[in-house]
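pasting OsmC family peroxiredoxin for the record, 143 residues
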Amino acid sequence: MSTEETLRTVDLTKIGPERYKATNARGGVLPIGGGDDPDFTPVELLLAALAGCGAIDLELIAGKRAPFTRLDARVTGHKIRDEQGSHLVDLTVTFDVAFPEGEAGDAARAVVPRTLEQIESRLCTVGRTVTLGEPVRYRGTAS
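structre below
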């Protein structure tokens, strides 16, 4: 089931105190920080990934019917520490979208509720991974 075709990777390099650079296979770069600078923290990146994954799916489906005149999203969650350790709870992605007036816009608006259900239940890889709870293993070497 796991093959080179299914593999996704990101490399991380330290660039300063509590600052890192993530690089994807296509050469894209994203700074990550510990929260004392404007860089996104790892938790904020997870929230952004949830919104971005859903937004792309929403655009692929509803956006085929009419172009968005607005597509905004807000992601909320509460970071807690309990007997299970540190984690996020009450994760919610809320989209605020608009389409042009007319038949195409009406068609796009009509598919939004069903599309959001599909994003939550099967389409968004990030959201599905969080929901299903895939284990993460941390490994390393030291020299």
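Helices lie at 42-61, 103-123, 125-132.
The mean pLDDT is 97.
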